[in-house]
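Request: Have a read of the protein record below and say how the chain folds.
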Amino acid sequence: MKTDVLIVGGGPAGAASALFLKRQGIDSLIVEAEDFPRYHIGESMTGAAGQLLRDLGLEGEMTRLRFPVKCGVKVFGKSSAGNWFVPVRGRGADGNMFDAETWQVRRSEFDKMLLDKALDGGATLIHGKATRPVIRDGVVKGAHVSMRGGGQLTIESEMLLDCSGQSTWLANLGGVTGPKYVGAYDKQIAVFSHVRGAIRDSGTARDERKDNTLIFYKEKYHWAWFIPIDDETVSVGVVAPSSLLPKGESLHSYLTRELPELHPELKRRLPVLDLVEEVRAIPNYSYQVRDFCGKGFICIGDAHRFVDPIFSFGLSAALREAEFAASVVRDWLGGKNRDEANPFAAYQLFCEKGTDVLEDLLDTFWEHPFAFSVCVHNKYRDLLTDTFAGRVYEHEHQPNVAIRDFRRLLGREEERELSYLNGSAYSIPIGSRYHPERAPLWEATPGESQAA
């Protein structure tokens, strides 16, 4: 079986890739092992992700499915003086900012909607599991697939997109991409479920809308999320150093005990812990794959890198990298850069630089909270609102002066520039950054708590 582009994984990265490829006149084939709808974590979107869905003409579908509208993120610190809000805002072609909205989504419904749209647009779906790539003369030329009903299928392609998410299919196989580095962030674990009966905000101001994302901070690397996903249900989760999860305690016991203990405001909002989903966990989730592009293949989104879920950048990275990759794939199919050692080096560096902006934002949040708060509330309010919205790429004027200041504060500016100039086309590995025993706790409170 042959196809121009083979996509491994039918989640948002894979479905969006198929949609954007079709806009370039390119047909694709998606290999997916699971039936949709299926459960998945990661329900909140940045403003840039919301805009991308509008650009794809999917706003009507988002409205039809009644996904909650998100106007921003509210963070609850250790005291009321430490509470702050970052709104969703857009930036027009004239450079001016405006109030905007994005969505919270039940991923089972959202992912199925996006995949269905890709199939309606002409993509082909194969139910099976990609087992290993086809490689000829050092070029990835497709994949071997174990079919759901039994038997094996070899799919030949001119281009393979690994959209396997945190499964990091190609990286885990070894020998195609570079190595996969597991990140720092104190080897955290995320434990999560869905609840009914949670108390939401009920105001009309943008920072009091009922469907905003809420984050509850306890201490460094230890926090909880609260994300409405429909009229009755809220996604809740606790993120903590894995060392704090008692040995022998079940995930259900840990989550139901930890949620009311983590923050008094969170306890108030969860008067009854009516769990309506299985309690699940993702351990040690930060990682980075070196050399995630090469002859005949590109890894997209979580298939090559994930930093920290706290401000919901995962979906944004997957959707936007899918958009950027489409024109690069078109050029490859047209014969461009076929003789280059890495024909997608420029794309790879472009994506790495964007994720580095997010990483530097997050590291400053954790490591230098007082300076971070001052910058969010006062010094660089609009620039950091851009970054929180997911506008993190070079054509969006990144790294902006706020991110450059953060890099100087982290002692990372020179290191970043050297990594970009040395021809390696990837950034510093995240596994060697910070040691929690030497780092300060996130304990500062900003001088004011109004909306950013």
Summary: The two ends are 53 Å apart (CA to CA). The first strand starts at residue 2 and ends at 8. Residues 345-367 form the longest helix (23 residues). Residues 430-452 have pLDDT under 50 and may be disordered.
